[in-house]
Amino acid sequence: MVRRAYPERTCVGCRKRAPASELLRFVAIGNGADRFSLVPDPARRRPGRGAHLHLDPACLTQAERRRAFGRALRLTGVLDTGPLAEAVCTTVAAGTADGGRTEPHPEQQGRTTDMSTR
Ligand SMILES: [Zn+2]
Prior knowledge:
4-stranded mixed beta sheet; 24% helix; 3 helices; single chain; globular; binds zinc ion; 6 strands; alpha+beta; 24% strand
């Protein structure tokens, strides 16, 4: 067996394997009975069952459509993908999806919900 330098994870959207560093980990936080919020965990520090997703709106959409989140996290109930969707969209919009970590003006980052700029 060859030891890989990077652990691989499977994207819940497109089901492709990729280095963990290219995927966004997220976990479900309970909001009460049968309600969960999917929150991003870029530092991979949160306890509990997590799953992974490309920083790509297309993968997010695929996962939502196939209800892959509930399956990956073994949850039944209402899953709120809002926080996760926001993280994917803002990260893609900021152009940091390729691993670049340069954020010269983090305090100037506004929230953008305008998806029509692609
Ligand atoms: Zn993917």
